[in-house]
Amino acid sequence: MGRDTRRSRLVIVALLIVAFTLITLDYKTGRSASGARGVVHSVLGGVEDGVTAVTRPIGRTASSLAHPNRYHDRADRLAQENAGLRRQLADNAEIGRMSKQLGDLRLIADKGQYSIVPAKVIAVGDVSGTDWTVTINAGRDDGVDVDKTVLNADGLVGTVSSATAHTAVVRLACDPGSRVGARLERTQLLGAVAGGQGPSALTFTLYDASYRVQKGDRLVTFGSMDYVAGVPIGVVTKVTDVGGLSRTAEVKPYVSVGTLDLVGVVVGRPAADPGDRLLAPQPVPTQPAPTQPAAPGTATPGTATPGTATPGTATPGTATPGTTTSGTIGAGQGGTG
Amino acid sequence: MWDIVGSADTLRARTFVAAIALLSVALVVQVSIVARLGLPGGRLDLVLVLLAAISLIEGPLVGAVSGFVVGVLADLASSHVLGQSALVMCLVGYAVGLVMDATERSVAVPLAAIAGACMAGTLGYAATTSIFGEAALTGGEAVVRALAAGIYAVLLTPFLFPLLAAGSRRLSGRPRRGGR
């Protein structure tokens, strides 16, 4: 046993009591961002921004270390020049990647006529790994505010849950506490998309039980006070519940949490609902369900999973024999079976 | 807290400050760099690895106190209930500190202790989150994640542990691990 067993026991008991007191107080009084949280968020956010800014060009620094400056003779000079050019190439690749991301983001914002503030992800989650949040390097000074919608080139990322002057915390759509009003593509049918299934799955509940949700149906945000309308959310991969007053389905989000880099915060809503404009065009509208989601050009990681699904894996009672039900929009209406 | 002030001779304040500073740096590195690496299977928990190593070297008291302080800091920086990771990290620091005298017996002891601490800590995070908030992970996911955290801890420990031990020896200004 280590030294001071009696004293360390006293200390740990005291610390545990303090921990439980903190938990009780915070749990009871609600989790509003108190002053201390705001201070810690803004300080840590600044540090995280700095760390990200330093670690991003780290490959460049390493390559410059590998090619030190020596002008002694011609070979060395050429080698140095070579290294410089190589650095420039690497820089260009990075700049090209960034500008493509910015261009894609701009494109989706233009399609929906959103006014966006671009921002970079500077921290992912928290230390315990149980928070589905990311921290971005834009804050109140840039026009970002709590409850604004955050998207990237692929679709919906989440909403801003708290903001300091220069950073903001975004609650991802896959957070267990997140609920997003969703609309089925080409219909006005409403539902809600909730998280809690891990990073690559969402749960969609359709309020109208008479409509048959099918694998391959795509979802966009419905739009409300907080959310702008028309942001692509994901594609239905599996219908899980067909009984009761509502229908539940599993949704594969377009956005992959692991590769989040550049995001846009929607600070200005469009004058009119953009409808389904932001979804990638589907190849043939009357295609059977299994090939439907494989829309080329979406360039999302989400297209891989639906494509691999075979008709046999569909839940019975949804549309298993009905791979020929071409009219996915209105044909299912009234089938209250 | 009264015992800490009362026995300042044995509980060098420098050790606490160094431990907490190191863990605070790890806090930022964890969310800004490690979390972005996208390691397969789960995540490396740098903070837990460091906390376990520090407790193993410095004992249960340093482990519990620094775990608690850094835990509160982590809670303030997150969006979950305050005190949640403080509770887990405090317990992890204390429990690992209890086996500090066994580290001289075998090289496997620190490895096992730190890996075990990471797994227990990851499961503890998942458990406290599902008790105090909404469950962020299902049971299976939490177990997979805990195993991954343990494996990454085993990979990292051989590099970190000797470094920390040397740092602690230098900080105290005498060969600590000699005659006990």
* Major sheet characteristics of chain B: none
Largest interface: pair, residues per side: A-B, 59 and 62 residues
Q: What is the gyration radius of chain B calculated from CA atoms?
A: 16 Å
pLDDT < 50 stretches of chain A: 287-337
What do the pLDDT scores of chain A average to?
75
Q: How many domains, in number, for the residues of chain A?
A: 2
List low-confidence stretches of chain B: 1-9, 176-180
Quickly give the structural class of chain B. mainly alpha
How many structural domains are formed by the residues of chain B? 1
Question: How would you spell out the order of helices and strands of chain A?
Answer: HHHHEEEEEEEEEEEEH
Oligomeric assembly: heterodimer
Strand order, main sheet of chain A: write it out. 1-2-5-4-3-12
How is this structure best described in words?
- The complex is a heterodimer of chains A (337) and B (180).
- By secondary structure, chain A is of the alpha+beta class.
- Chain A folds into 2 domains: 137 residues, no CATH class; 128 residues, Thrombin, subunit H.
- The longest helix of chain A is centred in the first third of the chain and has 39 residues.
- The C terminus of chain A is likely disordered.
- Chain B is mainly alpha-helical.
- Chain B has a single domain, classed as Arp2/3 complex 21 kDa subunit ARPC3 (Orthogonal Bundle).
- In chain B, helix 2 packs parallel to helix 4 and helix 5 packs antiparallel against helix 6.
- The longest helix of chain B has 34 residues.
- The interface between A and B is large, with 59 and 62 residues.
Q: Quick summary of this structure?
A:
The complex is a heterodimer of chains A (337) and B (180). Chain A is of the alpha+beta class.
Sequence-ordered SSE layout with sheet pairings:
The complex is a heterodimer of chains A (337) and B (180).
Chain A: H1 5-28, H2 35-55, H3 58-66, H4 74-112, E1 115-124, E2 133-136, E3 149-151, E4 156-163, E5 168-172, E6 179-184, E7 190-194, E8 202-206, E9 218-221, E10 232-241, E11 247-253, E12 262-268, H5 304-308
Chain B: H1 2-6, H2 13-32, H3 46-58, H4 60-77, H5 84-97, H6 108-132, H7 139-172
